[in-house]
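Open question from group meeting: does this chain pack into something compact, or does most of it stay loose? Before anyone orders reagents, we agreed to write out a predicted structure and look at it together. Recording both the input and the output here so the notebook holds the full record.
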Amino acid sequence: MHPIRQLKQTIIQLVKTMYNHDFNTEDLPLSPTRKEFSGDYTLVTFALTRAAKTSPDQIATDIGDRLVQDYPAIVSDYNVIKGFLNIDIQTALWVGYLEALSSNPLPAFPRLDERVLVEFASPNTNKPLHLGHVRNILLGWSMSKILDRAGYEVVRVQVVNDRGIAICKSMLAWQKFGGGSTPESSGIKGDHLVGDYYVRFEEEFKAEYSAWQTTPAAADLVKAAKDKSDPQKPPVSEEGFFKSYKNTYFNEASTLGAEAREMLIKWEANDPDIRSLWSTMNGWVYAGFQQTYDALGVTFDKSYYESQTYLLGRDLVDKGLDKKAFYRQEDGSVWIDLTDVGLDKKILLRSDGTSVYMTQDLGTAEDRYRDFEAKRMVYVVADEQNYHFQVLFAILKRLNAPYANGLVHLSYGMVELPTGRMKSREGTVVDADDLIQEVIKEAQAGAVDRGESGDIPPEELAEVYKKIGLAALKYHIIKVNPKRKMIFDPKESVDLQGHTGPYIQNAYVRIQSIFRKAGEPTSGSSLAGYDLQSGEKELLLALSEYADHIQQAAEQYDPSHVANYAYAIAKAFHKFYHEFSVLRAESELAREARLHISSVTAQILQDAMHLLGMEMPERM
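Structure tokens returned:
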């Protein structure tokens, strides 16, 4: 049994006897003793004062005395500091736990009769995946693996935004300027090729808009805007007017804008030529996406496409009207009033009967429930959509959807580079494929600079660099709490001495090096009689907390708990490695015990990194 569980049970039983009162684990919080104090675990006694009718210090002393006297096989010593009881657990108990942990180092969670659907990625087919998508994908993938480990049945899905005006911009630019180019003829990956034409459209539109700004019609609009400007506000400048007028120009006066809108109308009317072009170009993009997903090591159980879901949700609108949850305006539009829950009034159907994004999301949620009957759905979407999901979840609760209480928005902050924000339309986005290659190159360059790859067979080097580079990329992103904005620095991510994935991999590689020289620990060997030293016990204590961190990550939808735990374990092992010799241990028993500690460490590190989507090299 885990020492802390045994200690908790003992304390609950003892306190009940001492004070003739039933307490639960919440009343008797136990946590690892802070490093500046002596002890393994600390009991907070303040909740016992009413039942004990004495001071926290006296309660702690009384409990400590009884633990040492009545349970000497469990507790060896104690000390009291201001009502906190710091407890030393018998070394023999830790040694027994090490033996048990060596046989089964990874926590086992009972399988739960609950299915969780995790939606992540959400790419657009007018551009390749970029750094922002990478954070989304890595959060979704690691979260799905953590939930699976915590006992849930997990379904992984993506929603592909494959229709709309942005897609038509790429298609129109290819028609006008592509010259029939394909991924095969150009040698350009499909999603990159289509993304290039999206950027080309924006460049051509920018040139058209700039030329229009020199026309008399534009001058007249600027003059009218200045004439109508509020005298209480700063005067309208020509530059300010053209900046704010850009979308209006696209929708009302632009030749390119009119052609793109006409293409969208034809798409919605199922024009065979437009649909054929759309299908072809989207096929290029899907093939490109798949290559990136393969490189990142992620898969999906099902993909939903906006072209198939954008008309969904109208039956829910009818249902909401029947339930009086929605109301119809005089112009025929349908709304919901959410002001009573601190939100606003939201349109669900326009007066012409067309749906909005909210309606589509309602229909997609219902569609997925029919597909998988998952009563918990986790949406991995950037924090720019926080309000959208508050409204979506509130509407589904108003409709009494059977899954409404299990909706979670795993909101995450923007990813920036040291040079600042990225802009898709200007082609300044950091491409996911380029980023993957860059971190692999950084990993290779670092290994060459350190001269550390000499003992790795040449045929294995490429795979080792790939594992190190991808761990650098993934860990650098996942270690940050999702709600925080972050800056990604490729060079910093591969630092073997920093808070990085390669630093954790290095701890694992060190252990494999020990095993190559000393052999692995003997399975089922007895460690009875070994006197664990404080540094060894410190690492073992940290290893014993793995299950808690998985549970915490699953409950809070935050994989950074597992990431930072893995770093703490790696750091503790590096300290252990420098303090204690395994190959030249003072006795065979010490050597065997340290081999067991090293083995458990390696397995937990490997498993934790696996939950985060990272692989461990044997050498680096």
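Observations to bring back to the group:
The chain is about 55% helix and 10% strand.
Residues 421-427 have pLDDT under 50 and may be disordered.
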